TrEMBL record:
The keyword Cell membrane belongs to this UniProt entry's keyword annotation: yes
Protein name: ATP synthase I chain
One Pfam short name: ATP-synt_I
Record's keyword terms, sorted: Cell membrane, Membrane, Transmembrane, Transmembrane helix
One GO term describing the cellular component: plasma membrane
Compartments, record wording: Cell membrane
Length: 145
């Protein structure tokens, strides 16, 4: 499933980051699902929505990765057009998922929204809020010139 570098037992750094984020999303959404069982009445539509949102979010994340990997090999003007079109396609997919979630009685829209947004929170937590240098740079005094 995960690609490894040829002649090495180390995982590709991009794959490693994606794998960490996917694991984080599955962990967070499992916790949300357990909480949802106790809060939602009935819990099944919430869990279906959470699963639906999670799957779409992870697929969109993968599409973003494929888009960026292809775009970096293109000329700048081609890359801009390509990524813009792919961006619109990903947002169209999210819109369709939310529409389906609103229309279907067996899918709770709040569960779908949690499934979609959890990826963003996991990325922020893993890649931004864990970076001590980021916070040091924010609170560092500017030196006089």
């Amino acid at each position: 499933m995960l690609k490894r570098n040829k002649g090495s037992d180390k995982m590709n750094p991009v794959w490693e980051t994606q794998f960490k984020i996917i694991k984080g999303v599955l962990l967070v959404n499992s916790a949300i699902g357990v909480i949802g069982v106790f809060i939602a009445n009935p819990p099944l539509p919430f869990l279906v929505g959470l699963l639906f949102g999670t799957i779409i979010s992870l697929l969109n994340f993968r599409l973003l990765s494929l888009t960026l990997n292809k775009a970096v090999k293109m000329q700048p003007h081609q890359a801009q057009a390509y990524t813009s079109i792919r961006y619109m396609i990903r947002y169209l997919i999210i819109g369709l998922v939310l529409y389906i979630s609103i229309q279907a009685e067996y899918i709770h829209v709040l569960g779908t929204i949690f499934g979609i947004l959890s990826l963003k929170f996991v990325i922020l937590q893993k890649e931004l809020f864990n970076n001590k240098q980021y916070f040091k740079n924010i609170f560092k005094r500017k030196e006089a010139k």
